[in-house]
Amino acid sequence: MRAARNHISNGQGKDIVEKLNIIYRGAHSNPLYTANFDGVTWHGNTKISAQPGGVSASSPYNPSAAVLNGWLYIVYKSASSADICCAWFDGSKWHGGVKIKTLPGGISPQSNHTPNIAVYKGLLFMVYLDPGSHDVYTAWFDGTTWYGNTKISDQSGGITPQSALNPAIAAYEDDLYIVYLGKWQNWLYSASFNGITWDGNVKISDQPGGISPRTATTPGMCVYDGKLYLAYGGIMTNKFYTATFDGATWAGNTEISVQPGDIDPASSDNPGMIAFTPKGARFGEELYLIYKGAWFTDLYSCKKKASEWYGNTEISDQPGGISPASGYRPAVCVLAGNPGTQANWMSKLPDATLLGAINIPGSHDSAAINTSRHTPYACHNRSITDQLEFGIRLLDIRLQVVKNDDNTYTFNTCHGPIGSTGGFNTYQTFSSLMDECKTFLTTNDKETILALLRVDDWYNVPKNDPGAYTALQADLAAYPVVHPKAMPTLGGVRGKIVLYNGMNGTTGLGIPLSWEDGTEGKNANSSDDRSYEVYVQDKYDGLPLTGSVAAKLKLVTDAFGHISAGNAVWNFASAVWYGLFGVYIMSGLLSYFGEKTGANRPATFGWTLFDYPFNQYNTDTYGAMSIVSLILDSNFGYANYPNKFNMLSEHDEL
Fold first, then answer.
1. What letter does residue 235 receive in the DSSP assignment?
2. Phi, psi for 354 (deg, rounded to 5)
């Protein structure tokens, strides 16, 4: 039996809560609404325009939704044109509500119906029909930039899928699947994409399994119980059917009314569907269908748990007192709540613990923050204060040095020198970042923060300008900075910032720490002012064309083995692929830990730095997890995550 997945204690503070979210067009007008279900009670039924963010999202049809990098994205046809729009929710407020053609990428996707999206290999894929055409197109989004807007027939694979309506889309096992109506008929077809090549475009009735599913609109599709599930209305009836695919064979095409459970759901539109584990569920993950009524616009839900179906009940008759209604099936996705506070986790560790013996989560390019949207150089969507509150204790701080007209110096945070003249790659001032650290430690004086300083951009100053270093050292005097020569104990540095100097050998700027750029793993350069070894893995570029994520994951896990008594391991877990796309391994690293029980996982493995460290990934045993929550728990014997667990596919609604 699986553990309940949507209410998970993180052992140190607030729980992480998954909620089933629905996004839908109003019953009689174009504005989009949202509501959510926590496993017991429904909440919301509120226009997006009335929620924080000031975004006005409207469409003549339902949107589609998926979660990428911890944010909820919706795409939808514009209310005033065929342009496809995008909006996103960061857990606190909405952003966007704009046409994709206005976003980075320079593509202009259009459709006369609802586009559908799914997350596959860390990218948001969108599938749709171009206006006036039956050809199926795709576009994809890496969190920063949109690409594609290309017919599948023009992509690798030599297939030409065509449909009367936009296809459903879902990631299943290692492939991306689309299921769609035929161009002129109601037969369902499928095709798949392995990341390089498309395959299929074959009627399901001609595939192994001997079933012949037909429907009038786009089916609902998601992954549940290890299979690809479809839900759809029949041709001569509005009653729902389901079918499944196990990667080789189709099965089912069976009306829900004749399946165990004795319910008879029906609708004039096909349902939105998602796998979700409500709070207190006895059977683990359950399959939810959300749909409009057969004759009216009231929204209903039903669910399958174990082998039986339950529900077929208006949401207005369920706990919560809301009455959502729509003329179309809603978009459905599962979104984890904000990570729980981890402001005092170090306070539970003994004073005598050496810092190198603590598994510490860190943030790479910590101040490269954009809280409203992903940009090419941003690495985080949480402020420094939030990073610290949620458990980060190692900061990688990159500086821009500016010499002012009066010969004083200003220190800004940045991410590399590119774009500094335009200001789009500089972030907060260094002093404001340090103020946040000081304030955090004043409130949480049993914690410590480790910080590495490096200069990425000598803006208008000669490299290694002595005056700049002198000014920086003077600025640091206002903060609780220490730089001991020997590996400190936690008790000796509580309430302090342990500062590392990645710029020069000046001890006034921190403990000297430098290494071979882009190293796959070796000891840092020795220093008379540091009495312990530091092993560094920082391979950030030059990964293989294929298998870059696996290659980076191996470098990170190999570095775990270099921890030893009295030393430190700095392990950078992010990289770029051909200078364009981020390489993130958080899901793979969780899988690495999940393969073993807590007793058999690495007990000590050092300090690991991530981009977007609070992204949530779904597991079969513990629900939504972030790599930060697991690393923190490793310091306490994996008490909250003692059992093996497997990663689940991204939740996608179609």
1. S
2. -70, 140
The one-letter code for the residue type at 18 is: E
User: What pLDDT sits at residue 124?
Assistant: 94
Residue 92: other Cβ atoms inside 10 A:
10
End-to-end CA distance of the chain: 28
Domain with CATH 2.120.10.80 in the chain: 7-336
- Contact, 411 vs 472, CB < 8 A? yes
Q: Measured in whole angstroms, how far is the alpha carbon of residue 471 from the centre of its chain?
A: 39
Q: Specify whether domain 515-647 bears CATH 3.40.50.720.
A: no
Label residue 275 by pLDDT band (50, 70, 90). confident
What CA–CA distances, in Å, run from 42 to 14, 346, 421? 21, 37, 49
Fold for 357-514, please state it: TIM Barrel (3.20.20)
Counting Cα atoms < 13 Å in the Cβ hemisphere of 28 gives 1
List, for residues 522-572, the tens digit of each pLDDT value. 999 999 999 999 999 999 999 988 888 999 999 999 999 999 999 999 999
- Give kind and range of the element (H or E) at residue 592: helix 586-594
pLDDT tens digits for range 287-340:
999 999 988 999 999 999 989 999 999 999 999 999 999 999 999 998 876 667
Mean pLDDT, rounded, for 584-613: 95
Count of C-beta atoms within a 10 Å radius of residue 321: 10
Comma-separated ranges of CATH 3.20.20.190 domains in the chain:
357-514, 515-647
Burial of 295 (0-12, 13-18, 19+ CB in 10 A): exposed
C-alpha–C-alpha distance, residues 410 and 331, integer Å? 48
Secondary structure (DSSP) of 538-597: ---S---SSSHHHHHHHHHHHHHTT--TT-EEEEE-EEEETTTEEEE-HHHHHHHHHTS-
Number of residues written out for the chain: 654
pTM passes above 0.70: yes
Q: For residues 450 and 157, give the distance between their C-alpha atoms in angstroms, rounded to a whole number.
A: 50
Contact yes or no for 292/299 (Cβ under 8 A): yes
299-305, strands of its sheet edge to edge: 272-276, 286-292, 299-305, 308-314
Give the span between the Cα atoms of 87 and 331, in whole angstroms.
13
Structure tokens at 518: 């882009």
In angstroms, the CA 215 to CA 269 distance is 10
Q: Which tens digits make up the pLDDT trace of 147-164? A: 999 999 999 999 999 999
* Average pLDDT over all residues of the chain: 91
| Superfamily name with CATH number, domain 7-336 | Kelch-type beta propeller (2.120.10.80)
Count each helix (H run) and each strand (E run) in the chain, helices first: 7, 41
Closest CA to 537 of 552, 566, 559: 559
DSSP for 137-162, written as a single string: EEEEE-SS-EEEEEEGGGSTT----B
What is the DSSP pairing of strand 198-203 with strand 188-193?
A: antiparallel
Rounded Cα gap, residues 629 and 15, in angstroms = 11
Query: String of b and e for 213-236 (b: at least 16 CB within 10 Å)?
Result: bbbbbbbbbbbbeebbbbbbbbee
Confidence class of residue 6 from pLDDT cuts 50, 70 and 90? very low
